[in-house]
Write a structure and sequence with these properties.
Number of helices: 5
Distance between the termini: 42 Å
Number of domains: 1
Oligomer: single chain
Shape: elongated
Largest sheet: none
Structural class: mainly alpha
Order of helices and strands: HHHHH
Length: 175
C-alpha cells in the first residue's frame, strides 16, 4: 500500500509542479514574445496539455482510490475522492467549456484581441471567460494540494483480528 500511495503522491506532485510552471510560462510568454496573440496561442496550447493531464491524473487517482487498506478512515477516503472529482471537473470545464468558448470568440473577432476595443461585447465576454478559466485552474490546484496532504498524512489503524485463538471464554461466559 505504501508504494501505491507514493505513486499517487508522485502523480499529484508532478501535475502540481506543471501547473505552477504553467503560470511562469504564461507570464514569460507575454513578456518575451513579440505579439500578445502569439503568447496567447502558446499559453492556450500549454494549458490544454495541463487540463488534459489533470483530467487523466484525477481519473487514475480516483480509480486507484478504490484500493483501500483495512482500517483506513472512510471519511478521509471520501474526502479524497470528492476532491479528485472536483479536480477532474475543474480541468474538464476549463478545457471543454471555457477554452472552447474563448477560441470561438477569438475566431469571431477576426483580428488580434488587442485590436478589439475593450468595450466590445466579444472582448468583454472573452475577458470574463479568461477569469473563469483562471479560477477553474485555481480550484483544480487547490483540490490537488488538499488531496496531496490527505494521501500523505493517511493513517491506517491496525484491524484487530478475531479468531478462535482470540476468543476469551472467561469474558464471554463470566467464568
Amino acid at each position: 500500500m505504501k508504494l501505491l500511495s507514493d505513486v499517487r503522491l508522485l502523480l499529484l506532485g508532478l501535475w502540481l509542479g506543471a501547473a505552477v510552471f504553467m503560470i511562469a510560462v504564461a507570464q514569460s510568454a507575454f513578456a518575451v514574445l513579440p505579439t500578445r496573440e502569439a503568447a496567447g496561442i502558446l499559453v492556450s496550447r500549454t494549458l490544454a496539455i495541463l487540463n488534459y493531464s489533470g483530467l487523466g491524473i484525477a481519473i487514475v487517482l480516483l480509480l486507484s482510490s478504490m484500493i483501500v487498506a483495512a482500517g483506513t478512515r472512510r471519511v478521509m477516503v471520501w474526502a479524497e475522492r470528492t476532491l479528485l472529482i472536483l479536480m477532474a471537473v475543474a480541468c474538464a470545464v476549463a478545457q471543454f467549456v471555457f477554452a472552447w468558448w474563448m477560441l470561438l470568440l477569438r475566431t469571431q473577432m477576426g483580428r488580434p484581441i488587442d485590436e478589439v476595443p475593450a468595450d466590445d461585447p466579444l472582448r468583454v465576454q472573452f475577458n470574463n471567460l479568461h477569469q473563469y478559466s483562471t479560477w477553474s485552474l485555481i480550484i483544480a490546484m487547490a483540490a490537488a494540494v488538499i488531496t496531496f496532504f490527505i494521501i500523505a498524512n493517511r493513517r491506517v489503524t491496525p484491524v484487530k483480528k478475531t479468531g478462535p485463538a482470540d476468543f476469551d471464554f472467561g469474558k464471554q461466559f463470566k467464568i
